[in-house]
Structure formats: C-alpha cells, structure tokens
Write a structure and sequence with these properties.
This is N-acetyltransferase domain-containing protein. The chain is built from 10 helices and 16 strands. It has 375 residues and is α+β, with helices and mostly antiparallel strands. Strand 12 and strand 13 form a beta hairpin.
Length: 375
C-alpha cells in the first residue's frame, strides 16, 4: 500500500459528533470488549485529556488521545486505533506524532510518556520506550446462567487458613490517601511504584488518587499479618462478614467493608495485598455482556483468590438481570499458574496473555505541530 503523507490527512480535536466515526473504525477491536465506546463521551469532558481524530475525505480514519497525570509531569497515551482499510499506510505514525507534538507544546512540564501494550510490541516502539514492568493477563467469561454456580465453585477452592489474618476491607478515599503511610509499603506491592489500573499506569500522587475517586475506582486491601487495625487509626477491628453471611446472589448483610473470615493466608511473611476495580460497563459484544477489570497487587496467592471472589460477588450485585461478565485479571506473573488453577472450569476468554508498561522521556517543543488542528 502507498504510504500517506501528513498533508493528505486532517487531524482535529475529537468532538461528540465524531463518536459514530470512531466506532466505525473500532469494530472487533480488543476481541469485542473495547472500552472506548462506553468511555468516549466521559473522556471528552475530562479537562486533563485531549482526544484527536485523523480524517481523510471527511471520514475518520484514526483516533488517539493523551491524559496528563502525576500532577502534570507525566502523560499516558491511550486509545490509538486506525481504520482497518487504512492500516499499513503510516497513519498510526502520523497521528501519534501529532499527539506527542501537541502534548509537548501544550504541557511543557510533562517529561515522561507512558503507555501499556499487549505482548510483542514492534521493535520500533521498543527502540523509543524503556520497559518498566509486565503483568499476567487472565481473562474469563462468566455467563448469566452459570454465575451462581461459578461463585460457589470459586468459594469452595479457598481453604480455611490462618484465622488471625485480618480479612480484606474496602477503603474509603480518606484511607486510600493514607494507605502507604501506614502498614503497607508502596515498594512491596507496586513495581516501579506504579498503579496500573485498567491499563492506565500512574503513580500514587494525590492528583491521581483524586482522579480515581471521580472514576469510582474501588480499593480492596489486605493488611500485613502484624497490622490488625485499619489505617484510619481506629482501635475498632473492621466488620467481618463470614462466608455464610453472603447470599447466593452475592449480597451481604452489611454494606461495604465486606470480607470472608477464615480464608486468609497462613504465612506470617505476607506484606499485604491490594486490588483495584472500577464499575463494570457494557461492551460491543452485546447480549448483556459487561467488562470487569480487576488489577491485583501483591504476590500472595491466597489473598489474590479472596480478593477475586469478593470483587466478583460485588460485581454480580450490580449486574443487570440476565447480564454476563467478561472478567480480566491482571496479576504478577508468579501468580499465573495458581490463578489459572483457581479459575479452572470457568470459560476462558481470548484476549492476550501479557500487559506491558513502557515509558519514554520527552522534552518540550517550541513550534506548533506540523498538521493543523482545529478546535
């Protein structure tokens, strides 16, 4: 195919009116569980994000965006896609260059660019970006008519151990902001001190935590064995819901701070465990299918199993009648085999096996991008 030149395309700020055009070039992307159709309009309203479309003969042929994070000193590139009929003609490179040039011009304090990719990124990308970390990706499908039975099977696979270990608790955001100044050590749980939440790699600075609060990200935490109380400083032990108190539909007799007693890890060396999840959303696959991303931080397999079960129970409570779940787990590679066994008999979902985090240092530019961008 003949490569396109910059002058042949028009790159503009994306608008609400471009929604259908972006959907048209996104059909089948991410195996039908693309996040962008659901998040597009919310992204447009985010003051920290800029979104771009490339048009050829008035038709959308590419999309890209960046989000300024870490209090203004870093940015994450997200959502890049090119129309299937335009691939192989240099379109991705053109819109990526424009996105980066705009970022450097409008945000001169940004010195680092991050992005996430599935396995096997092209060598040209690895020549520009440094590798930070990778996580195992384990996707499964829970159909509507098998949800109840699947939860029972998972619960049966969690052995009763170490009654003294504090059960996991959901944190409110006052506790989230104090999380790593208490019994948890950031370096023990977060490789490169980065949270990777639904493919977004960010630090734990206050500005990012405030963003996550607006996105309604939930934090579930297991504390180290010697930390029996919550980071709020209260002397009250968190309320514990025994597994017998959780009903078949996943509801519990108390709201929030739910946990399963008697299922904690037995090792006294556990340094804590953390999981993050954002609200489920419907995906282009249709038929009531919803996507749930669960990001796991830590290396204790028992904690990971407990967190997954609790978060799935919470998800089922929010699931519309007749809905099903495509659940994507992101965990340290050392947990892959154990979690694969834990999820055995659940339907695997074909997506990817690995999540890579890449980073590049950048310098500001002094001249506008070469392709005109209209407001």
């Amino acid at each position: 195919m003949t490569a396109l030149s910059t002058s042949e395309m028009n790159i503009l700020l994306a608008t609400a009116g471009d929604y259908e055009g972006v959907l048209a070039i996104s059909e089948g992307i991410y195996a039908g569980i693309d996040y962008l159709p659901f998040r597009y309009h919310a992204w447009l309203k985010d003051p920290q994000r800029r979104m771009f479309v490339a048009k050829l003969e008035e038709k959308v042929v590419a999309f890209d965006s960046f989000l300024v994070v870490d209090g203004g000193v870093a940015a994450v590139l997200q959502g890049l896609r090119v129309a299937p009929w335009m691939r192989g003609r240099g379109v991705a490179g053109i819109i990526q260059k424009f996105t980066l040039d705009t970022l450097r011009l409008d945000h001169p304090d940004v010195t680092k660019i991050r992005l996430t990719r599935a396995e096997d990124p092209p060598p040209t990308m690895l020549n520009k970006y440094s590798f930070l970390h990778s996580k195992a990706v384990i996707p499964v499908y829970l159909s509507a008519h098998e949800l109840e039975e699947a939860l029972k099977v998972l619960e049966s696979r969690i052995p009763s151990t170490c009654q003294e270990f504090p059960p996991p608790v959901f944190l409110d955001y006052s506790e989230v902001h104090r999380l790593f100044s208490g019994p948890l050590q950031e370096g023990d749980l977060l490789p490169r001190r980065l949270l990777i939440q639904a493919w977004l790699p960010i630090t734990t600075c206050k500005a990012n935590l405030d963003l996550m609060q607006r996105w309604r990200v939930r934090w579930l935490c297991s504390y180290p064995c010697d930390a029996m109380h919550r980071i709020s400083g209260s002397s009250e032990v968190p309320y514990v819901i025994a597994s017998s108190d959780i009903t078949n539909d996943g509801s519990a007799s108390k709201d929030d701070n739910i946990s399963v007693s008697g299922t904690g890890p037995s090792s006294a060396a556990v340094k804590g465990f953390l999981s993050l999840t954002s609200p489920m959303f419907p995906v282009p696959l249709g038929d009531g299918k919803h996507r749930l991303d669960i990001d796991l931080f830590g290396t204790d397999l028992s904690c990971a199993k407990i967190h997954i079960l609790l978060l799935l129970k919470e998800a089922v409570k929010a699931l519309p009648t007749g809905g099903s779940i495509v659940c994507i787990l992101y965990a340290e590679e050392s947990l892959r085999d154990g979690l694969t066994g834990f999820l055995d008999r659940l339907i695997p979902f074909t997506l990817c096996r690995e999540q890579l985090v890449l980073e590049m240092d950048i310098k500001p530019v002094k001249t506008p991008p070469s392709t005109q961008c209209h407001n």
